[in-house]
Design goal:
Length: 279
């Protein structure tokens, strides 16, 4: 899809993308549309989003690690329901932090001549043929599940003392099952959409303007892993981010990655439900 620069002022080059990219740029973009925001906007949006987020999420992770030895009280049904509603609402509010920079730089600050539809398409909200979409989604999901299983096997094989967020959530489910399921519901329904918009739509797409596929994929995957504040799952989250970046590059659309992300997070819900019914 071509983009017109409209009546952009020639003195305002920092915030206006070049909509006639060189051949090399098009080649490394794969199936990703030429973005409608600049590399400088990508960097500014990433810093504005991730700097406070990393302080927040790693602070929570450290506090959680220090409180693991404390005995947790089993919540009453009413307390658990209230906690579940609050947890789901909090998850939605927190995850929306990932949408602010894309909304501002891609939609609000879009260059003259760029329609909202073109901006959303550049972000990754575009159609793709059904069969390739299904094939890529299935292959990507199988790859992620295989990585998770291999990672769990290696932890057991080498007796590594690693505790993931999923492990902590499973422990929490023993005394607050409804709250735990609400957190998983937020992770399945809200987090994949917000995180894919930011990490694979906005960040990865913006990085491709100046970087090749794998440097951009590696950097976006590293930030994606760090943003989860999950020390025990850093490696698998990093590989997860790489797979999702490649799916985005290969398909151009965010939808396969969103579905893979949702399906992966839904496995945690299945594990928790099975654990609760087995009691």
């Amino acid at each position: 899809m071509g983009y017109s620069s409209g009546n952009t002022s020639p003195t305002d080059h920092s915030d206006v993308p070049d909509h006639a990219p060189a051949h090399g740029t098009v080649a490394r973009m794969g199936q990703v549309e030429p973005v409608t925001w600049t590399f400088a906007q990508t960097v500014r949006g990433a810093i504005a989003t991730l700097a406070p987020w990393l302080v927040f999420i790693w602070g929570i992770a450290l506090l959680s690690a220090q409180s693991t030895a404390t005995t947790q009280r089993h919540l009453s049904t009413v307390e658990d329901i209230v906690g579940g509603i609050g947890s789901f609402a909090l998850t939605g509010g927190v995850e929306l932090a990932f949408v602010v920079a894309p909304a501002y730089f891609v939609v609000v600050r879009r260059a003259p001549g760029i329609t909202r539809r073109e901006a959303f398409v550049a972000l990754g909200f575009r159609r793709m043929p059904l069969r390739p979409a299904i094939a890529v989604t299935i292959v990507g999901f199988v790859a992620i599940i295989s990585i998770n299983l291999l990672y769990g096997y290696l932890i057991q094989l080498f007796h590594l003392q690693l505790h993931t967020n999923s492990d902590e959530l499973l422990q929490q489910a023993r005394y607050a099952p409804i709250t735990s399921l609400a957190l998983v519901a937020g992770a399945v329904l809200i987090a994949p959409i917000c995180e894919e918009i930011f990490f694979r739509g906005y960040l990865f797409g913006g990085l491709l303007q100046r970087m090749g596929l794998w440097p951009a994929a590696l950097l976006s995957a590293a930030l994606f892993a760090l943003a989860h504040g999950d020390i025990g799952s850093l490696v698998v989250l990093f590989v997860f981010g790489l797979v999702l970046a490649y799916v985005r590059w290969r398909c151009g659309s965010l939808w396969p990655g969103i579905i893979i992300h949702m399906a992966n997070n839904a496995t945690a819900a299945v594990v928790i439900v099975l654990a609760l019914t087995a009691r």
